[in-house]
Design goal:
Structural class: alpha+beta
Oligomer: single chain
Distance between the termini: 34 Å
Radius of gyration: 17 Å
Order of helices and strands: HEHHEHHEEEEHHEEE
Strand order of the largest sheet: 3-2-1-4-5-6
CATH architecture: 2-Layer Sandwich
Number of strands: 9
Number of domains: 1
Largest sheet: 6 strands, mixed
Shape: globular
């Protein structure tokens, strides 16, 4: 990874991301950079304000595509979970053709064994994640890091009792603890299922669960993930009921 091609504010996080063992991403504005098609990413970069020159745009686009190689890394493989707001799927970034291509890419990526993609229904209403996008990352040294970003300002927080733990609690509330949120994040991209259709959670007792090493230093629960029927399931390891 050539860090010089990345924005200054993003370089500290990109260094950690390149060697991460696992990470959990949440956002409600656009498809995460690691899952963007080239044309979708170009449209996102073209929408930057203030506008950037053509040379810088192409440089940034190339860097973003290179970052995506992380998801295909074999030794060691990375475990990645993406939680995307439903509204993102409807937003025609780059136009209808680019949007269609992007949704197809999400379908393809979601079938890979190390990648879990969940969609948060708009009908869910208010939840802690709406405070802002966030990433929870496990470094090669097994340390837990939180990253938040807004308007070209990025912040990496490691083992903070106020920020990384808060992010962990927000993730736990929005994803791993369905009892608190009253509904489930449903997989709405599988085989072109109509977005807006609901899907009832299947029984989770027979699933094979994989525990993330993420846990808040304040004694919070770890998240466990499993997959079946092309849906991603996440649950609080201290509770046996998971969400799909």
């Amino acid at each position: 990874m050539d860090l010089a091609r990345l924005p200054m504010f993003f370089r500290d996080y990109a260094t950690l991301e390149a060697e991460a063992l696992s990470f959990f991403w949440y956002g409600g504005y656009v498809v995460p950079g690691l899952l963007q098609s080239e044309e979708y990413a170009r449209a996102v970069l073209e929408g930057h304000f203030p506008p950037v020159g053509k040379e810088l745009l192409e440089e940034s686009l190339s860097a973003r595509m290179d970052r995506q190689k992380l998801l295909d890394r074999q030794n060691p493989p990375v475990v990645a979970a993406f939680l995307i707001e439903e509204a993102v799927l409807y937003r025609p970034v780059g136009g209808a053709a680019v949007k269609k291509q992007q949704l197809q890419l999400l379908l393809e990526r979601g079938r890979e064994c190390n990648i879990q993609i969940q969609i948060v229904p708009t009908a869910l209403g208010m939840h802690p994640g709406l405070d802002g996008s966030m990433v929870l990352l496990e470094t090669a040294e097994r340390e837990q890091v939180a990253y938040v970003e807004s308007q070209d300002i990025g912040l990496v927080v490691s083992q903070s009792p106020t920020s990384s733990v808060t992010s962990g609690c927000a993730w736990d509330t929005a994803v791993a603890n369905p009892q608190r949120r009253g509904t489930y994040a449903t997989d709405r991209t599988h085989h072109g299922r109509a977005m807006g259709d609901s899907q009832s959670p299947r029984g989770t007792s027979d699933l094979k669960w994989f525990k993330s090493s993420y846990s808040s230093s304040g004694g919070g629960a770890c998240a466990e993930v499993a997959s079946a029927d092309s849906a991603a399931y996440v649950r609080d390891s201290k509770r046996e009921r998971g969400g799909c």
